[in-house]
Design a protein that fits this description.
With 485 residues, this protein is α/β, with parallel strands linked by helices. The protein contains 13 helices and 19 strands. The chain folds into 2 domains: 107 residues, Alpha Horseshoe (Serine Threonine Protein Phosphatase 5, Tetratricopeptide repeat), CATH 1.25.40.10; 317 residues, Purple Acid Phosphatase, chain A, domain 2 (4-Layer Sandwich), CATH 3.60.21.10. Helix 2 packs antiparallel against helix 3, helix 4 runs antiparallel to helix 5 and helix 11 runs parallel beside helix 12. The N terminus and C terminus are likely disordered.
Length: 485
């Protein structure tokens, strides 16, 4: 386990029982050194003793997530002892808690000079560089697009799913014997029939990389699908993917880059790292998709000012903006959307009501979630559809797919050129065996979402017909307009 304090407060979002979960990877939370970094001997030099006292005070403040106290104490440590790597390393994490990314980057750059082999340094630097660049970019007024207006009758039909992981090489024995194409064979017609198809790619597409996430390979919940598996996504009609989730960094920065290169080569757009926006052209419309996660290694769901700025910037240069997010607690007990922040295994999994509404206010036309491994309610806010979780879709080998966790969907939404909701429906799916999805004629997920919507959003919740047709509350039923899938 990395030597960290905040890392112990944030365990990774993994399927299965709590006993099966491993500590979060450093890219998912802000590490800080263990108190054991303090030298055993009491320093006799006054300056050294003062620096040591400030370091200890800063670490304690980081444990309590008191960033301001930590910054003051660790800055004093650095001033007293500029060559102390531990003070600069922790000061960077203290700055990150305040979203002061330029300052965090400055400290970690000094760490690189002093100790190039500092554990997890590459991930920290990558995260800080991207976040600092994003903040600098958003500090400038967005540049308006000069492109011509889309055709009057332009519209786009979107199909979207939740978590997709087609098999993992770690641990061994969890790749589908029939290949990734077989995993998606029964649901491929649902994915292909759209202008734009979206999935959340739960884990990297990578043939190399090293994970520091697992204590042992047998109980490891670090995912890595072969890069060749990307072709199965392309062949099934996937156009755009989210890489913003708690498994995208399971095998480090090398595998993040391999994933992005693989998707680029396949012509699948992607969003995930800080500042990334996937751009697609469909039917005369320029569409931007921004994927968020509750980690600063991605577009950061919990940093609301920056998230809003990014959506506003995208809205200035795109006709339509879609937001996806990976957030919320996990498991069969996590089907509700509570007011306020959600916590899971000590980790802040976001205030999803506040986040989704803020995204619409900033210019998003559709907001869709994944991450809890179960489906959740749907609501309309200012005429925009918010799907709080689409559940598991195709999660082979390492996910629990029984009960509610086996229910998934393909969410279909049609928008006009101004982003207005025209129609929507749930195409229900269910996973069988090791995680093979198929259409669900019983519509289990539709019944679940309708029940949860009535409970969580009695006033703003979406209307769902027995056939899965979605409409704003109070509008005429659309079941006569759209048949069953």
């Amino acid at each position: 386990m990395p030597s960290s304090v905040l890392l112990l407060l944030a365990l990774s979002a993994l399927p299965g029982s709590p006993a099966e979960r491993e500590p979060a990877s450093p890219s998912q939370s802000a590490p800080a050194s263990e108190p054991s970094a303090t030298p055993a001997a009491v320093p006799t030099d006054p300056a050294t003793a003062a620096a040591e006292a400030q370091f200890a005070r800063g670490v304690e403040a980081l444990k309590a997530q008191d960033a301001k106290t930590a910054i003051a104490a660790l800055s004093a440590c650095v001033e007293a002892s500029p060559a102390r790597v531990d003070c600069r390393w922790e000061l960077g994490w203290a700055y990150s808690l305040e979203n002061q990314w330029a300052e965090a980057l400055a400290q970690w750059t000094e760490v690189q000079k002093l100790k190039p082999d500092q554990p997890e340094l590459e991930s920290a630097l990558t995260q800080a560089r991207a976040q600092a660049a994003l903040q600098e970019r958003l500090a400038k007024p967005p540049e308006r697009s000069e492109r011509p207006a889309p055709p009057e009758n332009a519209r786009v039909r979107i199909r979207a799913t939740g978590d997709v992981m087609l098999g993992t090489t770690v641990p061994e024995g969890h790749l589908p014997p029939e290949g990734p194409e077989g995993v998606l064979a029964a649901v491929r017609p649902l994915l292909e029939d759209a202008d734009l198809t979206f999935v959340n790619l739960e884990g990297p597409l990578c043939d190399d990389g090293v994970t520091t996430k697992c204590r042992s390979p047998k109980g490891c919940y670090a995912f890595r699908s072969p890069t060749a598996y990307g072709q199965a996504l392309k062949d099934a009609g996937v156009d755009v993917a989210s890489t913003a989730n708690n498994h995208s960094g399971d095998f480090g920065e090398e595998c993040r880059r391999q994933t992005e290169a693989t998707l680029d080569n396949l012509g699948i757009a992607w969003s995930g790292p800080p500042g990334s926006v996937a751009t697609l052209e469909r039917n005369g419309l320029r569409i931007g998709l921004i994927a968020f996660h509750t980690s600063a290694s991605c577009n950061h769901l919990n940093n609301l000012p920056t998230a809003k700025g990014l959506v506003r910037s995208a809205a200035a240069t795109h006709d339509l903006v879609i937001v996806s997010f990976h957030g919320g607690a996990e498991g069969p007990k996590a089907v509700r959307v509570p007011p306020g922040k959600e916590k899971f295994m000590g980790e802040d999994r976001g205030d999803l009501r506040a986040f989704t509404h803020a995204m619409v206010d900033a210019g998003a036309h559709l907001v869709m979630g994944h991450g809890p491994h179960v489906a959740r309610a749907m609501e309309f806010y200012k005429g925009r559809l918010i799907a709080y979780s689409m559940g598991n879709f195709a999660t082979y080998g390492r996910f629990t797919v029984t009960g509610l966790q086996g229910l998934g969907m393909v969410l279909e939404v049609e928008l006009d050129r101004q982003g207005r909701f025209l129609s929507g429906r749930i195409l229900p799916t269910r996973q069988h065996g090791e995680g093979i999805p198929a259409p669900d004629p019983e519509g289990g997920v539709t019944s679940l979402v309708r029940k949860l919507t009535a409970q969580d959003f009695p006033r703003s919740g979406a209307q769902l017909s027995d056939e899965g047709v979605i409409s704003p509350r109070g509008s005429p039923s659309m079941s006569s307009q759209r048949g069953t899938p």
